[in-house]
Amino acid sequence: MATRARKPSAPQCVVRIDYNDYLLPLAKGMQLVALMQEARKCETSYTGNGLNKSVLTSCERIHTEMEVVDPREVRARPEPKPDDLDDHEQF
């Protein structure tokens, strides 16, 4: 019985924004990092029943980094078994 060669996956990367990691195709990750170079942290607040909005900006840049990942290293997290869920998590 012949086996088919596995089609190579597109290059992947992990983009870290502050303390969160995101898995993306490499080309998209590079675009995201380039865009984030222009971003600044801010706070948005609403007053007067949400009619007045103010945005406070900061000079602080967002910590962004990218790491190339071998597609063979990417694995899906196993889904929890129904027995493993707490009563309040079941529908």
Protein traits:
91 residues, mainly beta, three-stranded antiparallel sheet, two-stranded antiparallel ribbon, 1 helix
Give an account of the 3D structure.
Strand 1 (12-17) and strand 2 form a beta hairpin. The chain has a domain at 12-71. The chain is mainly beta and 91 residues long. The chain has a three-stranded antiparallel sheet, with helices on one face. The protein has a two-stranded antiparallel sheet with strand order 3-4. The mean pLDDT is 82. It has one helix at residues 26-36, and strands spanning 12-17, 20-25, 40-47, 52-61, 64-69. The chain is flat and about 50 Å long. The protein has one helix and five strands; from the N terminus they run ββαβββ.
Task: Give a quick summary of the entry.
With 91 residues, this protein is mainly β. Helix content is 12%, strand content 40%.
Mean pLDDT value: 82
Distance, first to last CA: 44 Å
Q: Residue share in helices?
A: 10-25%
Structural class: mainly beta
Largest sheet data:
3 strands, antiparallel
What is the overall silhouette?
A: flat
Which strand order spans the largest sheet, edge to edge or round the barrel? 2-1-5
Write the layout of secondary structure elements.
Elements: E1 12-17, E2 20-25, H1 26-36, E3 40-47, E4 52-61, E5 64-69
Antiparallel strand pairs: 1-2, 1-5, 3-4
